[in-house]
Amino acid sequence: MIPVDILITFFAASALLALSPGPDNIFVLTQSALNGKLAGLVVTCGLCTGLIVHTLAVAFGVAVIFQTSAAAFTALKFFGAGYLLYLAWQAFRASATQIQSADNNGRDYLKLYRRGIIMNITNPKVSIFFLAFLPQFADPDRGSLTLQLISFGGIFIVATVLVFGSIALLAGGIRQWFYRSANAQQILNRIAGTVFIALAVNLVIMKR
Question: Which of 3, 24, 93, 130 meets the CB 3.0–4.6 Å disulfide criterion with 58?
Fold first, then answer.
């Protein structure tokens, strides 16, 4: 049984980490401003699904591969950067008319959900971060380490949903200011594309 004070401390630390500027919350921010609150919430669900993968990887020791293997780290890193550049290319190609048309006909939220998952699981630093962060709060004397790590991963995900969900709701309101302006829509698309490129570059230059 994990003590309540440990759970509270871990939740507070997780919430603060989720608030820290990074690729995931910036992704939620830009997608919410561009596509609306629901889109941001769907992306948040995708990112947190990716966190489930990282939690299980750490709990069962798979993340050690990415910490000890430079080749595995590099391969996943470049795959993620390539996907981000693909998203940037799509954003720069999008027109204001396409934005309105997509809104009228219903957006492909499944695609946004998949984007969130891929964004998260192709960032090897998340696995390594989990590998370093979660075990600090686990104690062999409290029982199964695997179950403890899964529990902490679940708490981290709850904190992330709350923080990223709030970002999505706040940023989604900005979209109403841009909706009727074709120029503003184009500018927002260019900003989103630039953010994707910046995230791709950051992913490529990161070190283990």
Answer: 130
CA distance 162 to 39: 15
Tokens coding 123: 């960032």
| Residue 77, domain member (yes or no) | no
- Cα dihedral 202, 78, 206, 116 in deg (nearest 10): 60
Residue 6 lies in a domain: no
Helices (H), 94-144: 96-105, 109-121, 124-133
Structural domain span for residue 110: 25-69+96-179
Distance separating alpha carbons of residues 116 and 125, to the nearest angstrom: 16
Flag whether 30 is in a domain. yes
* Cα 8 to Cα 21: distance, rounded to the nearest angstrom: 22
Q: Which residue has the higher pLDDT, 57 or 1?
A: 57
Which residue has tokens 């910490």? 67
3-state secondary structure of 61: coil
pTM for this model (two decimals): 0.75
Lowest pLDDT segment from 38-42, 61-65, 85-89, 125-129: 61-65
| Structure confidence by residue, pLDDT tens digits, 88-117 | 888 788 765 444 444 444 458 898 999 899
Nearest to 167, CA basis, from 31, 54, 51 = 31
The distance of Cα 127 from the centroid of its chain, to the nearest Å, equals 12
How many domains is the chain partitioned into structurally? 1
Look at residue 106 and tell me if it is in a domain: yes
Looking at every residue in the chain, the average pLDDT score rounds to: 81
